[in-house]
Design goal:
36% of the residues lie in helices and 21% in strands. By secondary structure, it is α/β, with parallel strands linked by helices. The protein folds into two domains: 288 residues, Carbamate kinase; 166 residues, VC0802-like (2-Layer Sandwich). Helix 1 packs across helix 3 and helix 2 packs antiparallel against helix 3. It is globular, with a radius of gyration of 24 Å. The structure holds aspartic acid.
């Protein structure tokens, strides 16, 4: 049996929805279907989840709020009609959203999650009804009922250890079960969602629970590319990569797959492969496995991410100061920040921190709220380091606007000269390397460069390792 998850872009309108259902029907091992909420129908369109967030934030009962509700319900009705499920299957949708919006506003996060989860729930209801209309045996099941128990970390919930046993019963049904992704039920009886993109995680939890033969993750891309197609023209598709390689790539900037979604499989069912593939059911895909045979190319992918800041601390004879690094990290910890890298030399240490993204690619503008918060983080941390680090450092400064580029591949452990090739690629792109970091696992080497050099550097690396 296969667990198949479909992303929002594949469910954005009736045409895509029908294509998804055909893909499901083309392989009768696809028994458990996990769905996202309908995504953007065209460039610049708003995903249903984003509409829901806007509705939750609008003044209850205001014209603005009513407008969002109308839009959301109209989108559901249009899909229901277009996939042959009939609008009667969404007849309760408006009352449901109104009920969620009317929840106690003082429980802000709990209410927001209940509203956010609505898109997945109704998408799944429509699909189950549409399969029935096609004469297929199919049912909708709410994840809370199925056993998806999660923590009360609203907006960023985690599955509980106990959820797997109950969810394993999903395997018993002989028709198609459609389950909404993205949320589960808490011990308080409330709904809590995973972080954004969390339906990927729902799918892998369920795949691990039912011991599926594969977890297929469908979206509007044919698989995972070796580099960002927005930077490199027609990058090659990766045919196979390991869970560890995928984890490094997603963490370092690849956005095809939620970065926590690998864990349930790695920990509980490492033999279940993940297949990242296109919703139209075409044959190409990227297979993610626990172990793979190494090929000639020791690098499988190149990822890049922006919005890093490096706090650089210099102190003469730092190597003789026992506990200096610990004290520095303690100051960072006190501010509730986690760090990514700590390159060091005898008299200096840098701590690299990832800041939330200020640039919103959707609106092509800077989110002023995030920008102000980031500025406050940098200024506050600089002050803390200067005033609290004892003995006082000679120089403390923060380099902002840094990007991290990672070359990833398990084969790097066994091959000589990969770093040399990479640094030559940076040189030919005239990209100055601000830092280099390679962990003990040797699965990736991370290079810090200024953000404006990312494009050229990634293209040059791609030419070196894949052309
Ligand atoms: N609909 C949710 C989001 O937009 C979850 C998901 O798509 O996986 O983040």
């Amino acid at each position: 049996m296969i667990v198949a998850k479909f992303g929002g872009s594949s469910l954005a309108n009736a045409a895509n929805f029908n294509m998804v259902m055909n893909t499901i029907e083309s392989d009768d091992r696809r028994k458990i279907i996990v769905v996202s909420a309908p995504g953007a129908r065209f460039k610049g369109d708003t995903k249903v989840t984003d509409l829901l967030i806007k509705a939750a934030k609008a003044v209850p009962g205001s014209t603005e709020s009513k407008g969002f509700v109308e839009d959301i319900c109209a989108r559901l009705a249009e899909i229901a009609e277009g996939v042959g499920a009939g609008t009667q299957c969404v007849s309760g949708a408006e009352a449901d959203i109104m009920g969620r919006l009317a929840m106690d506003a003082s429980q802000k996060e709990m209410r927001l999650d209940a509203v956010k989860a609505y898109g997945e729930e109704w998408c799944a209801r429509i699909m189950a009804a549409a399969f029935s209309a096609r004469g297929k045996k199919a049912k909708f099941i709410d994840p809370r009922e199925a056993g998806m128990s999660v923590t009360t970390e609203y907006g960023n919930a985690r599955q509980t250890n106990g959820c797997y046993k109950k969810l394993s019963k999903l395997a018993n049904y002989d028709g198609i079960t459609v389950v909404p992704g993205f949320y589960g039920g808490t011990s308080r009886g409330s709904i809590a969602t995973f972080s954004r993109g969390g339906s990927d995680l729902s799918g892998s939890i369920i795949a691990a629970a039912v011991k599926a033969e594969a977890y297929e993750n469908f979206s509007d891309v044919p698989g995972i590319c070796a580099a960002d197609p927005g930077i490199v023209d027609n990058p090659r598709l990766i045919s196979e990569l390991t869970f560890r390689e995928l984890r490094e790539l997603t963490y370092s900037g690849f956005s095809v797959f939620h970065d926590e979604a690998i864990r349930p499989l790695v920990e509980r069912a490492p033999d279940i492969p993940i297949l990242v593939r296109h919703s139209d059911g075409r044959d190409t895909f990227t297979k993610i496995v626990n172990d793979r045979k190494q090929d000639d190319n020791c690098v499988v992918g190149i990822a890049a991410d922006t919005n890093f800041v490096s706090f650089n601390v210099e102190k003469h004879l730092m190597n003789r100061e026992i506990g200096y690094g610990r004290k520095l990290l303690h100051i960072i910890e006190k501010r509730g920040l986690s760090y990514e890298h700590t390159p060091s030399s005898i008299d200096s240490i840098s701590v690299v921190i990832r800041l939330p993204k200020e640039y919103d690619p959707k609106t092509k503008s800077i989110n002023q709220e995030i920008a102000a918060a980031n500025k406050a983080t940098v200024v506050g941390l600089l002050e803390d380091i200067k005033s609290k680090l004892n003995p006082a450092p000679d120089i403390v400064k923060a380099d902002t606007g840094l990007a991290m580029i990672a070359i990833v591949g398990e084969g790097m452990k066994e091959s000589v000269g990969t770093a040399a090739k990479a640094t030559a690629a940076f040189a030919s792109a005239s990209a100055n390397i601000e830092m280099i970091s390679q962990g003990a696992s040797e699965i990736s080497i991370v290079f810090g460069v200024m953000e404006n050099r990312v494009g050229d550097a990634v293209r040059s690396l791609y030419k070196t390792f894949f052309a």
